[in-house]
Amino acid sequence: MSPKLGKMKVYIGLVLAVFIFNLLTISPVIFVNLGLNKFAKIIYCYFSPLCHQIDSRSFHINGVKLAVCSRCGLIYFGALIGVLIFPIVNRHNFVKNGNLLLIVGLLPSVVEFSLEKFVGLEIVIFKVLSSLFLGGIVGVVLSHQIIDMFSSKGKIF
Question: Mind telling me which InterPro entries this protein's record contains (predicted)?
Fold first, then answer.
């Protein structure tokens, strides 16, 4: 198997894993609507160490809360977007310094969280955009690091 084909398989596996993880966050809605409440409870338990799951801070579909709060859900969705755009971003050597990128990605979320926690100012669009941005950066850096683990150069496309 050629190295490029091996990297492609790793990338496709990563896309599938992140997609399934995102699907799990909305699966309680599916389970509850199918009358499978026990499965929904299992998913809530699975995500409880990762997220506070406060009802008022979570998205709901058909009256059913997602498995994570809105901020976590947006970060996870942003990570999926980051993994999907990784091949485009990686062509431009954008991911040379992953640690710096993570700090840059975290800054808007820190500002948003601080405004909400310490000033009492909640700006929903800022929360949405900063969470998606952080998730996107994490997705790109995660993709680069995982691909790099399986190759010497980390280039996939």
Answer: DUF2085_TM (IPR019206)
DSSP secondary structure letter of residue 65: E
Q: Is residue 114 part of a domain?
A: yes
DSSP E strands, the chain:
60-61, 64-65
Domain limits for position 92: 3-149
Number of domains in the chain: 1
| Long-range contacts, stretch 89-94, CB < 8 angstroms, 24+ apart | 89/140, 90/140, 90/143, 90/144, 90/154, 90/155, 90/156, 90/157, 91/157, 94/140
**Other Cβ atoms within 10 Å of 29 Cβ, number:** 20
pLDDT tens readout for residues 37-69? 999 999 999 999 999 999 999 999 999 999 999
